[in-house]
Amino acid sequence: MEQREAKSRLESRLRSAVRDSPDLHSAYLLVHSDSRDLHWNMATGRTGDTEAAPEQPFYAASIGKSFTSTIVAMLSDDGQLSFDDPIGEYLSTSILDGLHTIDGTDYTDEIRISHLLGHTSGLPHSLPEGGKMFLNTRLEASPEGKTLFDEMLADPDRTWEPEATIEWAKRNLEPHFPPGEDCYYSEFGYNLLGLIIESVTDQPYHEALKEFLFDPLEMEHSYLPPFSEPAVDSELPTAPFYIGETKLDVDTVPSLSAFYAGGQTVNTAEELFRFHRALVEGKLVSEETLQEMRQWNKLWQGIDYGYGFVRIRPFPFLERFHSWGGLGASSAFMVYNPSIDVYLVGTFNQWSYMRKSMMFLFRTLRSISKVERT
After folding, report:
1. Contact 131/137 with Cβ under 8 angstroms?
2. Is the full-model pTM beyond 0.70?
3. Which end of the chain has fewer CB atoms < 10 Å from its terminal CB, N or C?
4. pLDDT for 242-270, tens place per residue?
């Protein structure tokens, strides 16, 4: 297939996705392949009165876990910590007290940094979807029937400190299994990693993001609301994301701060691509460390988890279409397929579009695989 035809098909498919789905308002897609000498960045739809543009910042959601895990890996390469370290070496007694108890047995001392990175700590989750979005997450609610996300939406002006999210979890939720015995997605585990980064680097998490990643990679439009601002303001508004019909402007909802190191950054597609490419090319962590970060455990159907990254297997036995990178609950994606040699980055800015976005990615991979390499 000629590049011009492939690009036209992708642009048409992206427009159709927004046009045909009443829940979608905007969509963004960056495609890059070195072996085909192509780099396409496209957008469609609107954000309020503004036409969506490829360079527009958007909420990356849990793609931010990739930043957290990469900083931890960089600290490991530098000898400042080890993946096998007990988390008790870095966290306060108040955080550790009552963190992981099952049937009267306290497993807190057994939790390693690697358990938090790979979602194998057994700690609970904070989102409200239960089994609707993914197949093995449960509804994580307080005795009053409220999730942390319910609390966040009920008081959108509240700024959550990470310690407060951990205390909420200890007060209202229960761990699921002893550390290392299974794989279960946990936002709270990544908030703990953010606190570990703060302990080791002696600076707030948002400043560590800037020092380790945003400044070196010239990610000048990337930031962590409400804790920081971009180095350079975009001329375009940050694209809002939606939960069904509910619109959330991330810059004006401080309560989203509860996601903290678990995924709260705003980025552009170009800057997410720049980060992922630097990681793939060995410019951020050693080859040995990156290999360790990509030791996969089954998390959901067709999705495995390493250290801050997912492996997507739309068809388990067709390795050609296996990709790895980051996914966000806003239907954001940042993946690389080594067999086809293509990076795909973007978002649909819609909570309910997650599964459909996976099919969109697969169809895009098939299209690019038909474009001849140069």
Report:
1. yes
2. yes
3. C
4. 999 999 999 999 999 999 999 999 999 99
Q: Which of 41, 44, 35, 65 shows the shortest CA–CA distance to 55?
A: 41
Half-sphere exposure of 189 toward its Cβ, with a 13 Å CA cutoff? Answer: 29
What CA–CA distance (Å, rounded) separates 205 from 68?
9
Token match 């035809």: residue? 5
CB atoms inside a 10 Å sphere around CB 338: 12
Torsion angle, alpha carbons of 65, 67, 73, 77, to 10? 180
Contact 327, 62 (CB under 8 A): yes
Q: Is the pLDDT of residue 74 over 50?
A: yes
DSSP code per residue over 230-274: -SS--SSPPBPEEETTEEE-GGG-GGGGGGGGGS--EE-HHHHHH
The CATH number of 3-63+220-369, from 3.50.50.60, 3.40.1010.10, 3.40.50.300, 3.40.710.10, is 3.40.710.10
pLDDT digits (tens, 9 = 90+) for 359-371: 999 999 999 999 9
Distances (CA, A) of 107 to 100, 104, 176, 190, 208: 5, 10, 11, 18, 29
The encoded tokens of residue 185 equal 């997605």
Domain residue extents for the chain: 3-63+220-369, 65-207
The structure tokens 């800015």 sit at 349
Q: Which DSSP symbol is given to 211?
A: I
Residue 343's pLDDT band, with cuts at 50, 70 and 90, is very high
Alpha helices in the chain (DSSP H): 3-20, 64-77, 93-96, 113-117, 148-154, 162-172, 187-201, 205-209, 269-280, 287-293, 354-369
- Give the bridge partners for 297, in sequence order: 305
* Rounded distance between C-alpha atoms, residue 153 and residue 165, angstroms: 14
Instruction: Look at residue 130 and tell me whether its pLDDT is greater than 50.
Output: no
What is the Cα–Cα distance from 44 to 27, expressed in whole angstroms? Answer: 5
CATH number of the 65-207 domain? 3.40.710.10
